[in-house]
Design brief:
Low-confidence stretches: none
Shape: globular
Order of helices and strands: EEEEEHEEEEHHH
Distance between the termini: 89 Å
Number of helices: 4
Oligomer: single chain
């Protein structure tokens, strides 16, 4: 890698960080599967010594730096490297969810993506092994599916942000309020039944 990894910058009274190695851009990916009216989300696990003594979630978002300015190719590459799932040359729904900065001190621009893997017939109980990118951190990288309840408990900001964007765009809304919708449907059916009974009683009296 010829470019420096991190660069401290100063603009007026603010100090910040850039990441020249990836053109200061990255992708955050949250794949999901809809099965039996429930959504499951694929998160990755890799070794990061920076958080060795800190309490963080075991699994986090699939991420990667954009080295060639090709965002979709980066998404495809990161899926293979971090999960072992090959989405090349396959009809898969990749949803672009917008771009955002992670915080006030980092000028790295993150591009958010959701990937619908529902048609892949994946085993939701399996641990998926990534091919890695030949770095120590990704030597033992793996990924697992979690429920939306477990996802909601994570302290990984990028996972929650991508999950929120999917919800805002109504791409994964049904899992969160399925019981509410079923209750609403039953209520409508009961009201129709009651109105029908009342109508029959009125007709009989007439």
């Amino acid at each position: 890698m010829n470019k420096e990894y991190l660069k401290i910058i100063e603009v007026e009274f603010m100090h910040g960080v850039e990441e020249p190695w990836c053109n200061n851009q990255g992708v955050a990916i949250l794949p999901y599967v809809l099965k039996d009216n429930e959504y499951h989300y694929l998160l990755t696990k890799e070794y990061n010594p920076l958080f060795k003594n800190k309490q963080i979630s075991e699994y986090s978002t699939i991420t990667g730096g954009i080295e060639n300015n090709n965002h979709y190719q980066t998404v495809i590459n990161e899926m293979l490297e971090e999960t072992g799932i090959d989405i090349r040359n396959k009809k898969v729904k990749i949803h672009y969810l917008g771009k955002h900065y992670a915080n006030k001190s980092s000028t790295k621009l993150w591009y958010f993506y959701g990937i619908d893997l529902s048609k892949f017939n994946l085993d939701l109980t399996k641990t998926y092994k990534g091919t890695g990118d030949n770095t120590i951190g990704e030597k033992e990288i793996s990924a697992r599916f979690v429920s939306h309840k477990k996802l909601n408990k994570t302290n990984d900001a990028l996972s929650l942000a991508t999950y929120g964007k999917l919800n805002l765009k109504n791409l994964i809304r049904f899992d969160n309020n399925i019981n509410q919708k079923l209750d609403m449907i039953l209520q409508i059916l009961n009201e129709q039944k009651n109105n029908s009974n009342k109508s029959d009683e009125t007709s009989w009296k007439d």
